[in-house]
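Final report, Chapter 2: Outcomes

The project's central promise was a pipeline that accepts a single protein chain and returns its three-dimensional structure in a standardized token representation, suitable for archiving and comparison. That pipeline is now operational. To close this chapter, we reproduce one record exactly as it appears in the project archive, with the input sequence first and the structure output second.
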Amino acid sequence: MPSPVLSLTWHLTRSSGRRGLQSHLLAAGAAAVGAFVMLVMIAVGLGSGVRADHTTWRTPAAVSAERATAVQALATTYVRHDPVSVVSLAQLPGREATSPPPGLSAFPKKGEVYLSPALAELIHKLPASQLADRFPKPASYGTIGAAGLASPDELVAVVGRAPSDPAVSKAADGGNWYDEGQTERAGIAGFSAAKPKPSIFTGSDQWTAVMGSVLLVAPVIVLAAAAGRLGAARREQRLAALRLAGATPGQIVAMTAAESAAVGAAGALTGALAYAALLPALAQIPYGIGNWYTGQLWVGLPWLAAVVAAVTALITVSAVSMLRQVATSPLGVAQQADPRRTRMIRLVLFAVVLGYVFISTQGGQLKIQQLIALLGLFYGAFWLFGPWVVDRLGRIAGRFARRPATLLAARRLSDDPRGAWRTVSGLVLAGFVAGFFSVIGLDIDASDNHGQVAVVTADSAAARDTATKARTLLREAGVTATVSVPSEDDFDNVLGGSAGLIAHVSGGQDQVDTAVTALIPLGAGLLPFSQDYVSAPDNVGADRVGVVGIATLVMSFLVAAASAGLTAAANVLDRRRVYGLLRLAGTPLKMLDRARIRETVLPLAVLAGGTTAMGVYGAYQFNKLAGISMNTSGAVQLAVCVVVGALAMLAAIGCSKPLLRKVTTDAIQTAD
């Protein structure tokens, strides 16, 4: 027997007319955007982990000399400022055959060279003196498959060598402190390690993506929660009438849950389908080392179903949570006589959480995971605190209002502080993201040593002997450079105190790349390196934070603007009776629109300023943890973010002005 509650819900939904359809479409659209953004966030986090796993085989997994079947050496060189990972492999004679590395069908023999597709394309594009001459010259190059690559844009070479070749026998001798993660050598027995170590170019991608997701998840939740409350006033009036007619609280809750779940599920499923359809396009958005393989961004059906269910549940819970007054006081709701006040406990909880976060960050020894958890805790506390501030702000503004528009705005703020908070909450929380990423120290590489190419030698005497050969090789390669042998007490160069020589190259990056190639015979297994090599350990993490910061900023403001626009449109539909009565009383349309804008600007100015300041403080703690200074030039970027965000919010609200004009055109009918 079909449920009478479901039948009645379906009947009321169908008979709700154009008003109900508009609210349902807005709610479904918000659910679709929320599900899409959440799936993209999850995809980037999971995909970054997959990419890191695809680079672990390049770092030698050392075993004892008795167990070793081959020798592996990792070296890193740079061309056009892009890293090229060179993996040299040599099978040890008389030992068991070594399994091939990922992406290769067989263990490389001496003289064989395998290239990633991107590196093969670049070798054919650039002059041989800039790149190709750094590798042996086989009859033909092999290709590294996708199983051995983290990105289709990655530059990787695998070279088969003899065990006595300096590239594998001496690759880690006489190095410097910049070698960690870029130059290593060890005897191996295969390519599966108990504790795999990813490349430095992918190792920090996942936690950075997770940090961005934590900062972005609050605006997404705001959007989804707003979707559940679209049409709330209309729904409350309808359900209050049913409650007065004899419907039980359980039936009211069931009807609301069924209606909201259906709308939320339809919207979330649409967002999930859009994510699946746009995967090839999403894979073309670079992050870290380059674009993605499409499969890396596929989260799988379990995650897909979980996100659809989570968005649906969030919208349903958000809608049902509005029914407390309907269930307990339907007459008050029907008469619109129950202002939704907030309690002081919100301020107390916010103060407790803020104090805990402040104390926890004082030591400066927090791990990234702990910082991410504190960020989430701070977001939750501000979500509780926001409506309380809006409520008090409305009371204060109403007491000192001197203009009718301000008085109307203040009354709306104090009558429905949660509703007003929902309109601005997305941008308020995005202000924290703006404050965090705008002043965080990202410009780590402030060196003046660009144009230097270094060759490490055993000692200063060997460096002086090698310097003569270096001048000859550079001259034959057509490179204009001066060669010097700095003192080992001189740290203001790319050698950083190591023994060796430095070629000061003139003529730009092409000449630097040519110099690196020309000086390879002098390295005795160690590749010549430039400032790119020296800066890589610090700049990789800074680059990832910068990219995630920009993406999070853009997404936060877009989601916040969408949330504000949807909420503003829904408020117009929900308050059409109030607006109609005000128009009948002679209130000009322009004044109603000004009141709507001030209803947004007042809490936005107060709360966004607070979260932005908190974001700056969070950036300070992050910089303190990383041992880097604040990016003072980010103050301009922060000001731009604040202005753009405010304009986006006002534009989103302004888009609902035609709707306001439409619902108040025939005030006699719409005011009931």
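Archive annotation: The longest strand covers residues 70-79.
This record, like all others produced under the grant, will remain available to the consortium after the project formally closes.
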